[in-house]
């Protein structure tokens, strides 16, 4: 037996099939089947999408669960991670594709409101630095729902709130940020993402990621 044989498994998710933890468990089982005395340390990692909070918890953060609005407005249990005055918030936890019923997409109406509720909870918990993972969402509202949960108002020409979702932004006449949570100006907000697509255009968010969220070509044109 060689006591120095050690392996570190740093696994991300296999999107749509296995979580990072499940990937690491299966790789560990396979290695130990061949080398039973192998020392294995499994550490899930993430790219800002699904599993970002789990990766933070595996690294020593505390998991904080709460009830928030899902992408369709339904109540879901979501979590953020906290260590000291640093929080990790994952958009997919509240507003992710996994929060939709199987086979159901809502590219024009899904909202990020619940992600804003998580951010507000992180502020309430005393976070001074927030790492915000923005991948894996079911939404195309440009963060309007999230900002609404933090006090912003998105209004049409009559001064009424626009409908939730990216489609509702077609009616937007004015954004009122006067009620935005003032604590946002006092924290460091770090975006965690592995892409750098622009907001609009042929390589923009609607064109590239809209179809993943169920957007038809007409929906993409509307969103763009």
Question: Can you describe this structure?
Answer:
The protein is α/β, with parallel strands linked by helices. The protein has seven helices and nine strands. It has a five-stranded mixed beta sheet, with helices on both faces. The model has no long low-confidence stretch (mean pLDDT 94). InterPro entries: Glyc_kinase_flavodox-like_fold (IPR018193), Glycerate_kinase (IPR004381), Glycerate_kinase_sf (IPR036129). GO terms for molecular function: glycerate kinase activity. Residues 195-224 are annotated as: Disordered.
Key descriptive features of the protein:
224 residues, alpha/beta, Glycerate kinase, domain 2, five-stranded mixed β-sheet, two-stranded parallel ribbon, 9 strands, 25% helix, globular
Q: Give the helix tally.
A: 7
Low-confidence stretches: none
Number of structural units classed as domains: 2
3D shape: globular
In CATH, the topology of the largest domain is named: Glycerate kinase, domain 2
Mean pLDDT value: 94
Topology:
Elements: E1 6-11, H1 20-34, E2 39-44, H2 52-58, E3 62-69, E4 75-83, E5 86-90, H3 91-95, H4 113-124, E6 129-133, H5 144-149, E7 153-155, E8 174-176, E9 188-192, H6 205-209, H7 217-223
Parallel strand pairs: 1-2, 5-6, 6-9
Antiparallel strand pairs: 3-4, 4-5, 7-8
